[in-house]
Amino acid sequence: MHTIDINEELQDMCFRYICDAGLEGRITQHIGRAENIIPELDDMFDLVFIDADKVNYCRYYDQVFDKVRVGGFILADNVLYDGEVVLPHEQQSKNAKAMHAYNEKLRNDPKIEHVLLPVRDGIMIARKTKE
Description:
It is built from 4 helices and 6 strands. The protein has helices at 11-20, 34-37, 57-65, 94-107, and strands at 2-5, 28-31, 45-50, 68-77, 112-117, 123-128. Helix 1 (11-20) links the parallel strand 1 and strand 2.
């Protein structure tokens, strides 16, 4: 398992939780910008969870897509963005516009099946069906 976090101040706290769970040999922490780290990862993944800066969700999706096996999943948090994604475009915040663009990207991607779970702030589940 790999985690990516831009916030260096959280690294030690997160590592303590990883150790408390006995997973220090199974989880690799990366600190830095995800768009720089993702291309360097050589692993293939069954599951990717995106919960980061909203304006880059589409970028992260594109960067991880080829690293996810067919049948694997890409989950994205906050895709409803407090309901703002259904507002008229001119009333949406920058982040809501980014989430709307992400949702549209997945809606139009023929290489996945997707479902929106409308719990809390929304989780989009995409299952890769084709390369």
